[in-house]
Amino acid sequence: IRMAPTQHFKTVFWSQKQPEQTLPDFQTGFSVLHQKLGQSRVENEEMISFFKDRIAIEEIYANKLTDQGKINYKSAGFGRDEGAGLFKCFSQLKETSRRLGEQRRTAASTVTSEVLVPLQDFHEEYKRVISNSKLAIDSMLKQFDGLVKDTEKSRSIYHRKCKEADKAEDPSLKITAPKAVTEEYKKAEEKPSSPLPDANGSVTTGLPNIQLGNQVMPQPEFDSLIRRMRQEITLRDYKVPILGTYKNTSTGEDIAIWLQQNLAQCKDSPAMADV
């Protein structure tokens, strides 16, 4: 027997994200919720109408019974009776009708004060709260939709500018770059430079040195390190909520792990303790 999947609020109330959409449809669940709240409002109105009718019926019944208990005796009938048994019995019937009328009037008053009025007060407060909350949520959802559109627009502009920058890049720079770097090295060798101590305390001259943390590295060694990082650190797609997916990207965590594994000074660094 195949068991039904467990249902959760987030997968039942909110609409599921469609493949062509970047976010779930929050409006659908919100609309369903307020449809049910609107149904409750109508149900409250039905009960109020029912109790009003019931009170009106009770009052009519009370008036009829009270009036029946107040009818006068006819002069040709019980008005001439001297108080025999039948007269007393009829008088008792009239009194019973009068008392029942008073009881029904009391019941109508009790239903009005104990049921109808509190229900009407609750209904008015309910309508006010539901209306205000719906307006507030509608406003927030509209603001959210606007921010999502702005984010999508910014992301589109960002990707477009990246493509334009890649296309605008002069290919000749990539070809002549090694030559230009070599010429810079030659110029640096020809010019005297201030000696800088390396990690071991020795003094080197020639090409400019690079300060990397607490270690001084010659320029060629630093360039070699960068080339190794580009070759060995994995490039992958990195997904960021709302902003989208960045392709061919290395995360800071990937770079930190590589440095810890390949540079001795990074292994015992407090900054790398949690990597």
From TrEMBL:
Residues 201-214 have a biased composition (Polar residues). The keyword Cytoplasm applies. Its main location: cytoplasm. GO terms for cellular component: cytoplasm; organelle; plasma membrane. Residues 7-275 form the F-BAR domain. It comes from Rhizopus stolonifer. Keywords: Coiled coil, Cytoplasm, Cytoskeleton, Phosphoprotein. This is F-BAR domain-containing protein. Residues 185-214 are annotated as: Disordered. The keyword Cytoplasm applies. Coiled coil: none annotated. It is found in: Cytoplasm, Cytoskeleton. InterPro entries: AH/BAR_dom_sf, F_BAR_dom, FCH_dom.
